Amino acid sequence: MLLNVLGLFLFLGVAPAPTYPRLCVIALPSFVTLTWFLNSTGKLHTICRQLLWLGTLATMAASVGHEQTRWREYIDTRIGRAAFFESGDFARYKWLVGHTYPSEPFFDCTGQSYFLLGLRSPAVVSFLTDSDYLRPDQALNVRDSLEKNRVPLVLWTDNLDLGVRPDDHLSPLRVYLRTHYRAVDGPRTSVQILSRNLDLPSR
Fold first, then answer.
1. Pair (86, 133) in one structural domain
2. Cα dihedral 134, 90, 19, 28 in deg (nearest 10)
3. How many separate domains does the chain show?
4. Sequence-distant (≥ 6) Cβ neighbours of residue 1 within 8 angstroms
5. For the whole model, what pTM was predicted?
6. Of 32, 61, 83, 128, which has the maximum CB count within 10 A?
């Protein structure tokens, strides 16, 4: 009973935002209770144990079948061959592989492209967030680094254009991107590829 009460209150602590990592952290009491339940005797426990095994085997088989038959494409990147399971990601990376070269200054607001494409971030931070996690001086550093290095391409997500949070510090960077960059004729997804306007002089 004490273990169940503990598990219940741990769950209530993450219930408003139950992400996978949070559920993993508070799942230990439930595993202890499940193990106790499976080791109990009685007809009901035996039936439940058999149903749980059947459900586990069916889930494993379905998961393996899904992974083996789902859509995928491959790209030969700078570090080797990579598989993509989302058409938007595949189109974006395929475009970037053909329009960038290794060690080129490149800014990806998600921070996910540098390793795969062999690119480098010119700023002190390699990804952006519209919360106070990103400090105002870091946002300004990104803007100044884009200008100083004349960074040709920027990856930008639509959700960073909203600017609805009170602790958002991206406004100067948004203004800079609107005046110095334009969307390229690449893949249209929630992640935009922005190209520097080459006719703009340096400040």
1. yes
2. -120
3. 2
4. none
5. 0.68
6. 128
Neighbours of 78 (CB within 10 A): 15
Helices 2-14, 28-38: inter-axial angle, 10-degree rounding: 140
Across 128-165, b (16+ Cβ under 10 Å) vs e yields: bbbeeebeeebbebbbbbbbebebbbbbbeeebeeeee
Q: Is the dihedral of CA 90, 92, 93, 98 positive or negative?
A: positive
Q: Is residue 161 part of a domain?
A: yes
Any idea what the CATH number is for the domain that residue 110 is in? Answer: 3.40.50
- Name the residue type at position 114: Y
Cα 138 from chain centroid? 20
Q: What is the pLDDT of residues 95-127, one digit of tens each?
A: 999 999 988 999 999 999 999 999 999 999 999
